[in-house]
Amino acid sequence: MSDLKGEILRLGQQAKKAALELGKLSAADKNRILLAMADQIEAEGAEILAANARDIGAAEAKGLSAAMVDRLLLNPKRFAAMVGGVRKVAGLPDPVGEILDDWTRPNGLRIVKKRVPIGTIGIIYESRPNVTSDAAVLCFKSGNATILRGGSEAFHSNQAIAAAMARGGRAAGMPEHAIQMVPFTDRESVRHLAEMDAYLDLIIPRGGKGLIETVVSLARMPVIKHYDGICHLFVDASADLALATEICLDAKCAKPSACNALETLLVHEAVAADFLPKVAAALTAWGVELRGDARTRDLLPEAKEATEEDWVTEYLDLILAVKVVPGLDAAIDHINTFGSRHSDGIVTGAEANANRFLAEVDSATVYVNASTRFTDGEEFGFGAEIGISTDKLHARGPMGLVELTSYKYLLYGNGQVRG
Amino acid sequence: MSDLKGEILRLGQQAKKAALELGKLSAADKNRILLAMADQIEAEGAEILAANARDIGAAEAKGLSAAMVDRLLLNPKRFAAMVGGVRKVAGLPDPVGEILDDWTRPNGLRIVKKRVPIGTIGIIYESRPNVTSDAAVLCFKSGNATILRGGSEAFHSNQAIAAAMARGGRAAGMPEHAIQMVPFTDRESVRHLAEMDAYLDLIIPRGGKGLIETVVSLARMPVIKHYDGICHLFVDASADLALATEICLDAKCAKPSACNALETLLVHEAVAADFLPKVAAALTAWGVELRGDARTRDLLPEAKEATEEDWVTEYLDLILAVKVVPGLDAAIDHINTFGSRHSDGIVTGAEANANRFLAEVDSATVYVNASTRFTDGEEFGFGAEIGISTDKLHARGPMGLVELTSYKYLLYGNGQVRG
């Protein structure tokens, strides 16, 4: 066995042991530990920012793009947000221990379904160092032991943040090894984590499609995936067109890099001649490039030609694919064929169409007369989120603390046998 | 692309399309279709039993063991139970459409969390032909499209049962391709199914550890695993020893081949000298072979010596591993170290010990003063089950219709934008 694999197995065994201890903590225990972690991160701010400066220096020396370097950067504002995030999680309700169901069978056996932590969670992420504390504290609050494996570019930042969390947490009574950081950043460490199903109950990859694909192809345990958001808006024949324009602008332009941002606009042919020139003018004023099908380009000659590729592309940029469709059925069919089951909306004045859209579009979050940008743990009122699941198993859509839990059945008998 | 891969991709595409149609069916539609399937299976009984006779003949010619041949056999009683199973599922409540949550955000956006089918489910199974209808009708009732891939030994039986279901269902309005049978039984077909994450939302392997391991190592989509049940009973110092004996006999002897049968007995040292000779006499009368640790063998010299291997073995036979432990902590630690997180129980008169056992044993179902044999969908009152999940994600313990569903969020706005 390689040293690397042995080391990762050791982390896994320690995490499993820590998980059993974490299950015994009360909400008050966990909140006290979280506040101590926040204080310690704050106290070690100078060291953490110095470690970050080392990563930034290395990234610049390696010639990483300005956008990549910016993702790595911890400036005082981001650092304060990171500390604030930890304190905020301390204030959220603890989902663990909730009684989900409770019934008694005819033979007198009482069955109680109780919410419990999942156990051990691996978080594999890329360049943003704030994921270290964001992910770890959500897993900790929901009673899970965490193994973090960050990207090589943020190595020193991640180590410094994790060390501060561990010091602050341990001093306040955190079980040993509740939050561990893998001290390696090579690809092989991902493989060893993904194959360690004896000790990891779940892996959550946080990053680009390439990382998620790698984890999915290697993992032997469940993986919750946060894939692309190829989000659609369908403007129906009965839509309030001013409202449709406002929603379209918000969904496309307010934060084009978000996974819940609009990528494809579908317009009912009955309103296309009226709506498209108006919305195009507004979008163009925001600097949006339009790529349309033939019928769109008849009405908007300035639009580029959309290819098949455009219907399946998450631009994450000021680009919008536009298609004129004959009606609701075609819109639903387009979304179920080319979409990514993330967030899709209809603007309509017809309740029957709204209901059909909600029922038949197979996506995590489906909207009537609102921007797709509300697919977000904060906007849902979850207080925080670990991501937006594009899976249909276990958790779908925004994942908060509740989605980081499992359940167990407690059976109370007085001598029942099945015979 | 090989013909095999192409054919399986085609099944996947058809299943995805069928799933969208299945989502539109009412409970009444589905129940009518299920009853028509049951009638058709019954009407084609002679053909199905003839197909089964062909499989049995081939199995005997190949020299399969008597137990293997028996697993394949559809006799009139088993055939009637299969048909009855389909009718029973028609009578169960439909979980789809349930409103799981409903709240309105301060901005007026209403969020409704609604139960929906998972979508498309692959069932990969081994020799028992009744799994064909059992699994397919549970998936159908919960609104999912199913692709079945049975074992080679039951090929003709499976094809005949699936064809009857399809004919009966289609005549009653079942969407085309709602239930499909893979017409291949070679290993490569498992690989192609497991890699087809574009079209399959979930795979459930039904069979031995080897099959599950293969699916887990290949699958790119979620897999719900039904691994071993290494079930424990801990007899505490305060246990009613007559009750403990009765529970132990039921859990070990009533059906030793069940996954919820007892495999390891842990006895508190304070009652070992009193309890062990009594329970051993009762177990031996049932033909149970005992394998004990040193302290057990001091009290039961006739017991064989237990090795480390015994603590992690699912015997599925009239064999029981026995260990004397110093107390509750050691019992919990043994179970969390060597168990399989399936079903574990305590017999005790001390409520505090019961509560600690329930809280600290990390298993799907944890019992106080009852036999572990109640870990079963029927016994839980679910009406039917597709298996017992040993996973902690999505579904844990007995899986009924509800566990074959997902959810989606419906967002009702009146022009909300995030800005």
Question: Can you walk me through this structure?
Answer:
The structure is a homodimer of 419-residue chains. Chain A is α/β, with parallel strands linked by helices and 419 residues long. Chain A folds into two domains: 232 residues, Aldehyde Dehydrogenase, Chain A, domain 1; 148 residues, Aldehyde Dehydrogenase, Chain A, domain 2 (3-Layer(aba) Sandwich), CATH 3.40.309.10. Helices cover 45% and strands 21% of the residues of chain A. Chain A has 16 helices and 16 strands. In chain A, the strands form four sheets. In chain A, strands 10-9-11-8-7-12-13 form a seven-stranded parallel sheet. In chain A, strands 5-4-3-6 form a four-stranded parallel sheet, with helices on both faces. In chain A, helix 1 packs across helix 8 and helix 5 packs parallel to helix 6. The longest helix of chain A is centred in the N-terminal third of the chain and has 20 residues. The two termini of chain A are 48 Å apart. The model of chain A has no long low-confidence stretch (mean pLDDT 96). Chains A and B meet through helix 10, helix 15, strand 13 and strand 16 of A and helix 10, helix 15, strand 13 and strand 16 of B. Strand 13 of chain A pairs parallel with strand 16 of chain B, so a sheet runs across the interface.
